[in-house]
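hey m, so remember when u said the tokens were messed up on ur end? i reran from scratch. heres the input so u can diff it against urs
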Amino acid sequence: MATSEHPEETTETGGQMTFFEHLVELRKRIINSLIAIAIGAFVGIYVGKYIIGFITKPMLKALSDAHLDPKLITTHPAGFLNLIITLGIYIGLVLASPVVLYQIWLFVAPALYKHERSAITGFLLSTVLLFLGGIAFGYFITLPYVLKFLVTFQMSAQGSIVPMITVNEYFDLTLMVLLGLGLVFELPVLVFFLSLFGIVTPKFLWKNIRYAILIISIVAAIITPSPDAMTMLIFMAPMIGLYFVGIGVSAMVVRKKERQLAAAAEAR
């Protein structure tokens, strides 16, 4: 039955499924998601050998700017092949993520009200866009500065030591930076859910901003791959900006809930 807050909306047949039917539906969505991931990984492995040049470009530029030989090495006969396969799997996960999220939406949508389905649709789209935005920020802004600092720091500290960077080690560093920032950019989505369930409010977030900056500083110090303060600030800047975006998101959620409660009170 629909609540009095939305008397005109009712749940659809998905909310009346038996437990066994829910399991069958879940199995279907999991299989579809795995198929999408497998197809994405196949495509990713195929295009991986072409994308590897794009991924290594910041490292090669940092080496070239430091007047070093702009080359990455591999220390294992199958090292490059393993890298292509690993890269292809990650590319496949990214390519398949919209399909996976859509399968999740199909599983939960029948049991939701119309206004809840609209919110979930916006959530899925925002999640993908924010994650891709974090990856783009990491690749075009954060990663070049981090690599430049690491290379120049090593050259200035020990001029007799020439870095010989393996492509696998570089890939691990790149993955840590890009994945870390991709997850960090999901902060507004986290605030959205916390506000939706009444755990936080914009007033609470604003009042505790000093503690939030402290936590952001600790997180930035943990995920920053280099020890210099400037790199840490580069990581902190988008996180603080996203925190303020989260305050705005929380304010919108709270206002909408207050309007819905007021409308429900008038209806009674």
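this time it looks ok to me. The chain has two domains: 1-184, 186-268. if urs says something different then somethings off w ur setup not the seq
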